[in-house]
Amino acid sequence: SAMGFFSRLYGPGTDAASLAWLLVGGVVSVAIVAVGAWLVLRGERVLGFFTAALAVVVASPVAWTHHWVWAVPLAVALWESAPRVAPMMRLAPGHLRALAGLVALVLVADAHWWAPGREMKELHWNPLQMVVGNDYLLAFLVLLLVLGAGVVRGGALAPWREGAASRDSRAQASGEASSAGTSSASRMR
């Protein structure tokens, strides 16, 4: 989890670890749910659900390895839906399938067990051990970055932009109509 990462980075129970977890974990979790919702709204319910489900694991203060079980159906759903989802995101299906393969590889490799982890040794990891020891979290963050970039490239922000432009044009038209109505009313007097 993000809390585990920041606890290893700043020390368990420190204000820095807690604050970083709240800020980064919160922002990342909201982003994950947004990507999942975008996928669901485009008919990719299974992929959207499993993407959003991992928000709980990232945001949780404690995430044991078996909590990451959500990544297995996510990798399968990503692989299966790649030909449909990739064009929506302006990506090649092979890129999404490679990403699904990366997630599966990280899960199978179980590399986080290679880093020292007994007797509080994880609190003194070097940078390479930090990467290896946080393999699940980092692989999922890569997945989120690619999916998030695809969502933005695929026009996810367009409805908000179009909505704002539409509101602006309606407000402008309303303002012109009210000033036209005022001038005609004053002419009628």
Automatic annotation (TrEMBL):
<feature type="transmembrane region" description="Helical">
    <location>
        <begin position="98"/>
        <end position="116"/>
    </location>
</feature>
<feature type="compositionally biased region" description="Low complexity">
    <location>
        <begin position="171"/>
        <end position="189"/>
    </location>
</feature>
<feature type="transmembrane region" description="Helical">
    <location>
        <begin position="46"/>
        <end position="64"/>
    </location>
</feature>
<keyword id="KW-0812">Transmembrane</keyword>
<feature type="transmembrane region" description="Helical">
    <location>
        <begin position="136"/>
        <end position="160"/>
    </location>
</feature>
<feature type="region of interest" description="Disordered">
    <location>
        <begin position="166"/>
        <end position="189"/>
    </location>
</feature>
<feature type="transmembrane region" description="Helical">
    <location>
        <begin position="20"/>
        <end position="41"/>
    </location>
</feature>
<keyword id="KW-0472">Membrane</keyword>
<keyword id="KW-1133">Transmembrane helix</keyword>
<protein>
    <recommendedName>
        <fullName>DUF2029 domain-containing protein</fullName>
    </recommendedName>
</protein>
